[in-house]
Amino acid sequence: MTKNEIADALAEIGTLLELKGENPFKVRAYQAGARVLEAIEEAELARLIAAGELMSVKGIGEALAQKIGELHGTGRLEFLEKLRASVAPGLVEMLEVPGLGPKKIRALHDKLGLADLAALAAACEDGRVAALDGFGEKTQEKILAGLAHREAYGKRHLWWLAAEIAQPIVQGLRALPGVKHAEAAGSLRRGMETVGDLDFLVAAADVAPVVEWFTTLPRVQEVTAKGETKASVRFESGLQADLRIVPEEQFVFALHHFTGSKDHNVQMRQRALARGLRLSEWGLVPAQAREPDAGTAGAVPGTVKAAVAQTAASDRVVVRTEVELFKKLGLHFIPPELREGMGEIEESEKGELPQLVEAGDLRGAFHNHTTASDGRNTLVEMVAAAEALGWEYLGIADHSKSSFQANGLTEERLLAQVEEIRALNASQRFKTHVFTGTECDILADGRLDFSAEIFGQLDCVVVSVHNAFSQDEATMTARIIRAIEQPHVTMLGHLTGRLLLRRESYRVDAAKVIDAAIANGVIIELNASPWRLDMDWRLWRKAAAKGLLCSINPDAHETAGLEHVRAGINAARKGWLMKENILNTRPKSAVVKYLEGKK
Fold first, then answer.
1. 571 near 194, Cβ under 8 Å?
2. How far apart are CA 317 and CA 408, in angstroms?
3. Closest by CA position to 549, among listed 503, 595, 589
4. If you placed Cys at 398, which of 363, 373, 415, 554 could pair as Cys (CB 3.0 to 4.6 Å)?
């Protein structure tokens, strides 16, 4: 296990012990041990374990050292497995409800006997939760709202997590004998921020082995359908996946159909009809080649499919790629991310689709955290990871002092970090240049957490809202605009504060904030964390056309988080962004010039 995986295990032990009502000192020992572990570099942890010196680290005693060593060496811990088995699963599920921590869950269990979410909902609805000491009406209302959101959110899945499941499946399908083509389609291929289910499309003649392989995948909890050319499964995560197998000559048509949104597909079918053609998932045929409409004598189900089958081979429109399909309808190729029925067909016809940004265009990223605040890897580890990705630069933006829950930096600690970064750059230990910075809290009245004097010592200033989310729209909008009007501000972080499938956005007039950012030369980030993807892609096309500059920032709190820029690229492409619209596609020299000009 890596150090962060071990830290997660220690934190989980602390949480489970707290749910069981164990000694608070023991609980805090595991929580503190997790934080101590995160501050140790990976290589140093391995050395300490090998040398038997782990207990020399302050905060790690004999019991912790033994468990860390076992996790590091074997990847499992019998103590943790037994502890998990001793706690009712429903109590752990309650942790997913906003406003409920281990202490409150323990109180609900001890005083009301609640052991699962259904019982919790019932106790809220009849007022028993509000009557408990330390809860009250507001807490009860918040719990009920959280339960309602959780039910709604449970029907969707983050793109990033769905992609992690889909990618090896596509690779496995392609490797099967007799499979000519295999792709993931649907909202996953379009790069939507969340997906409802997965759609896999395969071209193969011998379908039985493909269906059998798909329905026996690891972590399949249930096979919900299994036919000759279709199958559906549900994974342990709750994510459903559908498989369709088609003849090779139909693959391109099916791929287009099962990728596009409903609006895009409707518009494409209408375009085909205007040209005397009929487009469907089965093919492209002359419009007159069709069976009677439903409701007329002799009509049968599946008329379009039958029409394609009955059309003479010489009359069928043959296409081998999606590029050819669009060309047959007088269009330039439309990337999957744009197939939302939002003007892409008209722009394609005019030949004015943008050259969308690609992952390889990024030269680095800003807004990243280290163990100095609430990050899980040290400065050196973060820079090493950025260098491994081939980045020219990395921006560090640890939290400011008002984010006490995130161990925000005081002025003194921030300036010490600035000196550490300057020394690291001067040492030339890494090819990747490090930009100094901060993620500075926007206070409730729009003031900033640090003074202009402190900002003057930094390369980049990211400002973000982290509290007082309940402000009305006018107040929140004025608050953010006041902040970005300050002369040292480089960029605005996560505009709406949303956490996908976890927390709704706070109320803010995005259009007014965008105009203010443009007027003040402030960048708005596209926060690439898969849980944020904020500013939303639906706002970027118009904003970029007005001159707003973007920075795709991972908001990484550990080395693996740097790779979240891939999710940001998806959102940027959906927002019609080109590399010219994005600061961190520029080489280091151009970024240095931009930041110096801003200062």
1. no
2. 62
3. 595
4. 373
Which tokens belong to 63?
A: 């019991």
CA separation (Å) from 34 to 6, 28, 144, 371? 8, 10, 32, 12
- CA dihedral for 330, 332, 336, 337, sign (positive or negative): negative
Cα–Cα distance between 555 and 374 in angstroms, integer?
11
User: Three-class SS string for 324-363?
Assistant: HHHHHCCCCCCCHHHCCCCCHHHHHHCCCCCCECCHHHCC
Q: Average per-residue pLDDT in the chain?
A: 93
Rounded distance between C-alpha atoms, residue 32 and residue 36, angstroms: 6
Supply the pTM of this predicted model. 0.87
44-81 pLDDT per residue, tens: 999 999 999 999 999 899 999 999 999 999 999 999 99
How many CB atoms within 10 Å of residue 395?
A: 26
β-pair type (157-158, 194-195) = antiparallel
Residue type, 262: K
DSSP letter, residue 180 = E
Query: What are the CA-CA distances from residue 554 to residues 387, 396, 434 (Å)?
Result: 15, 11, 15
pLDDT band at residue 288, thresholds of 50, 70 and 90? confident
Backbone dihedral angles phi then psi of residue 403, each to the nearest 5 degrees: -85, 65
Q: Reduced to 3 states, what is the DSSP secondary structure of residue 157? A: strand
How far is 153 from 145, CA to CA, in rounded Å?
12
List all residues 6 or more positions away from 86 whose beta carbon is below 8 Å from its beta carbon. 16, 20
CA–centroid distance for 368 within its chain: 15
Domains of the chain: 3-153 (1.10.150.110), 157-246 (3.30.460.10), 252-349 (3.30.210.10), 359-598 (3.20.20.140)
> Residue 320 class from Cβ within 10 Å (0-12 exposed, 13-18 middle, 19+ buried)?
exposed
Q: What tokens appear for 262 in the block?
A: 């409903």
Q: What are φ and ψ of residue 568, in 5° steps?
A: -65, -35
Cβ–Cβ < 8 Å for 538, 571: no
Burial 190-220 (b: 16+ CB within 10 A, else e): bbbbbbebbbbbbbbeebeebbebbbeeeee
Helix crossing, 537-545 with 565-574: angle to 10°? 60
Q: Are 340 and 190 in contact (CB under 8 A)?
A: yes
CA atoms within 13 A on the CB side of 322: 16
Euclidean distance between CA atoms 246 and 187, whole angstroms? 20
CB 489 within 8 A of CB 522: yes
Strand (E) or helix (H) holding 434:
strand 433-435
- pLDDT, one tens digit per residue, over 493-550 is 999 999 999 888 999 999 999 999 999 999 999 999 999 999 999 999 999 999 999 9
